[in-house]
């Protein structure tokens, strides 16, 4: 499975498809950190929320880079379950790399207010990004061509879902649990008072349950969709 | 390997591509799947490979190592031939160098540094063949394997299939080009109307017992000669003027008849020759 993960990452990076999401990441970071410094937790909370759709898109691009027949050859070589898992792992590795760069970037732009608590803010920011990665990868995987069987359907699922994550994630939403807690995490990190352990546990559990349901759906669909 | 009542369709509202396939493939057997384009040969092969999942029924006792050569190799990948095959070897849990044996055997050595997208169709197909053989497959599935291959590479396939089956493996091959004569011990299946049935191949046609003889005679005696030949039971196919250029040689045809030599006059009269030929 490691070999297939490496092969897919190499195909994505060498094929040039990585350029579009890389530009999108730079634009997002430029907008967030271009206007001045803010406390670490606030800055990273918004960064995680803003990167969510980009990471989902990046996942879709990575999974769609491989030709359909090559994906099936990989399926024959390593079996269906490992083939599906290798794609998700490759996307998660890439998303982790992007988030690491996103957390380092504000230090280049002087985007972090160092007069406020920096270390707790960085830890909370790391948690916010870690809570954004699995749902973004899950959403990107669900909108990949292997599942949707067409580019148009995949793009529609990706765009509608990303919009719903923001709209249903707004304060006083009627069904916030339908989407991952990306916006909720950003709000919590924006509070003046640091979040309690209970709040953080709730966010982690919420994200874990949402991802479990989404990845289970992906795995179930991939049983018959090669 | 057992096809146990396998049904397959590509969508809930789609027509059945395959219906109630019940068949067994024993170790050491070579199965050639015949059928017209779109009959469902590739679908059957992909079901056997595990690429597609039966809508109903199941395929049991599938070997653990399967080598699948798709009809069209996916060349749109940013790897060189060697890099690709080394990566496919790693996917199989083998050392990358395990692919080198097949790079040599399939005469890919001079193409190893060429990007997959720049390979000719036949060479790309050989890369597809090589990736399926890196680990000796218990089930080798070749979907139109002769497509695009040159004569040298085509000649290698029967030997490769024989190696797999001699080691107790199975081979499942689709063919619509009539190359199956190179696999004399193969069992034939036919796919038609969504059904898979055993196929009986007709024996090669016997050479025709009849030949065409060209006779030259004078214009004045032509009618008499025709009457004489007809009276003796021969068929007169046509009469034409002798051109200034004399025929050089006759060319035998595969079906045993002999075509007349092509002179300028013949070329002009080719239509009538074709119409008149029995």
Q: What is the topological layout?
A:
The complex is a heterodimer of chains A (226) and B (278).
Chain A lengths: L1 H13 L4 H15 L6 H26 L2 H11 L1 H30 L8 H25 L2 H4 L2 H17 L14 H9 L6 H28 L2
Helix pairs in contact in A: 1-3, 1-5, 2-3, 2-5, 3-5, 3-6, 3-8, 3-9, 4-5, 5-6, 6-9, 6-10
Chain B lengths: L1 E7 L9 E7 L5 E5 L6 H9 L6 E5 L5 E4 L11 H11 L8 H6 L15 H13 L5 E5 L7 H16 L3 E6 L11 E6 L2 E4 L23 H10 L19 E2 L5 E2 L4 H5 L1 H7 L2
Parallel strand pairs in B: 3-7, 3-8, 5-6, 6-7
Antiparallel strand pairs in B: 1-2, 1-4, 8-9, 10-11
Helix pairs in contact in B: 2-4
Any overview of this molecule?
The complex is a heterodimer of chains A (226) and B (278). With 226 residues, chain A is mostly helical. Chain A is built from 10 helices and no strands. Chain A is globular. Chain B has helices at 41-49, 81-91, 100-105, 121-133, 151-166, 222-231, 264-268, 270-276; strands at residues 2-8, 18-24, 30-34, 56-60, 66-69, 139-143, 170-175, 187-192, 195-198, 251-252, 258-259. In chain B, α2 runs parallel beside α4. Chain B is extended, with a radius of gyration of 26 Å. Classes of the chains: A mainly alpha (226), B alpha/beta (278). The interface between A and B is medium-sized, with 26 and 23 residues.
Give a summary of the structure in a few sentences:
The complex is a heterodimer of chains A (226) and B (278). Chain A is mainly α and 226 residues long.
The stretches of 5 or more residues of chain B where confidence is low (pLDDT under 50) are 245-278
Strand content of chain A: under 5%
Shape of chain A: globular
> Separation of termini of chain A?
17 Å
Total domains of chain B: 2
**H/E element order of chain A:** HHHHHHHHHH
Round the mean pLDDT of chain B to the nearest integer and report it.
Answer: 82
So what's the CATH class of the largest domain in chain B? Alpha Beta
Q: What radius of gyration of chain B results from the CA coordinates? A: 26 Å
The description of the largest β-sheet of chain B is: 6 strands, mixed
Q: Strand order, biggest sheet of chain B?
A: 5-6-7-3-8-9
Strand element count of chain A = 0
Measure the end-to-end span of chain B: 48 Å
The percentage of residues in β strands of chain B lies in 15-25%
Please estimate the helix content of chain B: 25-40%
Q: Mean pLDDT across all residues of chain A, rounded?
A: 94
Alpha carbon gyration radius of chain A: 18 Å
Oligomeric state, counting identical vs distinct chains = heterodimer
The CATH superfamily of the largest domain in chain B is identified as P-loop containing nucleotide triphosphate hydrolases
Q: Helix/strand/pairing class of chain A, anyone?
A: mainly alpha
Tell me the total number of β-strands of chain B: 11
